Amino acid sequence: MVIENLHVRNNNNGGAGIRVVSDSSPFFVTKDVIVRKCLVHDTYRQGILVQAKNVTIEGCEIYNAVLRNTNGILGQSGWEFALGTYLWPSDVDCWNNIVFRNNIVHNSWGEGIVALRCHNFLIENNHVYDCFSAYIYIDNSRKGIIRNNWVHSTNDTYNRWNTAHTFYAPGIGIQWAAEQNSYGVDSLVSDLDIYNNLIVRTNHPISWWRDISNTRFNNSYENINVYYNTMYLAYGYEGFHLDENISGVYTPTNCNFKNNIICKGQYPLGSYQRYISTSSHYQNWNIDYNCFMYGNIPVNIPVSNNIQGTPSFVDTTYIHIDTNFRIKSNSNCRFTASPINNIEYDYWNALRDDIEPCIGFHEYGGTLGTGSIESEILRSYYLGQNYPNPFNPTSIIHFELKRKIYCKFNYL
Question: What is the pTM for the complete model shown?
Fold first, then answer.
């Protein structure tokens, strides 16, 4: 089944905009559905809700979702998401083969994109901004890829109260967790590859959250790989946050944090805190070939493979354009990463160097793929995705030219 080119709005009856759901029996499960090029906005709960298998959501725009939590009226929990899965019936183990690709998700009073109880899932090439809670949230899921996403906040409208540290801050960038649940299978979060993402002006850019109400043995994770991400302006206490482990749960194993540009948390504003949380969890990680932007590399982190110093981005005076976070030719992040098997391309679909790649989401000088950008000097032109959508009073379209030249822009 293909659902295409729908425009859903003003759904104030307590439901979602588009629902791809299954019967109450685990023996009658919806599957093989594509939702493509739909516009969903002003929904009371979810924008697009998936409770099915073999589902692809691509090329959609979702905004003004979860309006029942406007201004955080629900408090510290109980809200939904703009786009994501939810496991129902509860006796289904998980949702298999879920793809969220090339979507624009913004202005959500809940999470942006959620993968809950997913097995074999892909979240790629999405633009997610201005969400109340986590921008991309992985809960009780395994065998997933989260890549080439642009995640950021543009203002403080959706800031959320942080009860642990008593301050308001944007939502968390990319987070995984194992929340308390009543499902029959005790699922360990495992086998996640998080790479080539740009995360700007969020709370912790990348984070593990431990739900203290979940007392099961598998309230933990393993085989998590965080590669080639660029993080900037972390409005929290750490750039890479790991909640403390507790006794009686599985000890994380085989986890890697590599080839990332990482910033320190800086909340309260102007007060730099830490790159990585002080929990014992980081001792279970291999932390190599990263660029630590401010100050010294943390104690107990290998200095021989990691570097420190400003990466030399193209232009950080305006942080809401992804191309501004390309690195320049003189960047300390050039030729300093370590190749990762099966990650051949960067955020722009440019081929990475197979011997000495660059640290971060951008491969300077990489062989150009479709629509990709080589360096701070363009070979031809770049046309970015408009945001928000054209149904709003205004829409921003960023473009770049190699040189000053007369051009004509047609908007259809």
Answer: 0.89
Check whether the bond before 170 is cis (ω within 30° of 0): no
In a domain, 385, yes or no: no
Relative to beta strand 381-383, strand 399-401 is: antiparallel
Please name the amino acid found at residue 208: W
For residue 233, the 8-state DSSP code is: E
Q: Is 91 domain-assigned?
A: no
Strands (E), 245-362: 255-258, 261-262, 274-276, 285-288, 291-292, 307-308
**Number of domains, the chain:** 1
Phi–psi pair at 205, nearest 5 degrees: -60, -40
Cα torsion at 227, 131, 325, 320 (round to 10°)? 170
According to DSSP, the β-strands at 7-11 and 307-308 are unpaired
Query: Do the domain assignments include residue 278?
Result: yes
Contact 158, 129 (CB under 8 A): no
Q: Looking at the DSSP assignment, which residues form a beta bridge with residue 101?
A: 58, 124
Among the listed residues 23, 67, 30, the one whose alpha carbon sits nearest the alpha carbon of residue 45: 67
Q: Determine whether 354 is exposed, middle or buried from the number of CB atoms within 10 Å of its CB (0-12, 13-18, 19+).
A: exposed
CB 247 within 8 A of CB 380: no
pLDDT tops 60 at residue 145? yes
Nearest to 134, CA basis, from 208, 67, 186: 208
Mean pLDDT computed over every residue of the chain = 87
Give the whole-angstrom CA distance, residue 107 versus residue 83. Answer: 12
Residue 148: the pLDDT is: 98
Contact in structure between 146 and 361 (CB atoms under 8 Å): no
pLDDT mean over 355-365: 95
Residue 229's domain spans which residues?
134-377
Find, among 62, 144, 73, the residue nearest to 103 by Cα. Answer: 62
pLDDT number for residue 213:
85
The length of the chain, given as a count of residues: 412
Asked if 260 and 229 touch (Cβ cutoff 8 Å), the reply is yes
Residue 361 falls inside a structural domain: yes
